[in-house]
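Researcher: We're teaching a course module on how sequence relates to structure. For the next exercise, students receive a sequence and then see the predicted structure as tokens, so they can try to spot secondary structure elements on their own. Here is the exercise chain.
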Amino acid sequence: MTGSTAGFAEPDRAALLALLEETPALTLATLDPDGAPRATPLFFAADDLALIFLSDPSSQHSHNLLADPRCGVGLYPAVDDWRALRGLQLRGQARRLREAEAPHALELYLRRFPFAADLTQAIEAAAPFRFQPSWIRRIDNRQGFGFQQEWHLDE
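Model: And here is the predicted structure for the students to work with:
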């Protein structure tokens, strides 16, 4: 992983992981077949810096990812003052997980969202996806308006 700051120090990684832990939902950006952008809110669980989400396999964003796995993600904890705005903007690829990978992903998801265990029918019908970031921007207005750090992740 390389950064636009002086290296990628462990406290920065800790800040990324803390944001992922604090924020339960993301917005997934994909492209529809006609090239129009689509933004979809989804709950997610983190697997280090990778993000696991469940989707209806017949949803448009699932079809979009199967056609082109490149996508963007935005996630921000809820705040009511722009001076406290912080979050992550990410680019990467999302892929539907193979059957052998699904149990681990589902375990992470249900650990984060225990209520989902009561939604057996929905969980069984959902397809697990894994978003792997290739680029991350962290913003944090608490450190000064417009504060940001960027990293390109080695794949």
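Model: If you want an answer key for the exercise: The beta strands are 2-3, 25-31, 37-43, 45-47, 50-55, 70-75, 86-96, 127-140, 148-152. The two ends are 8 Å apart (CA to CA).
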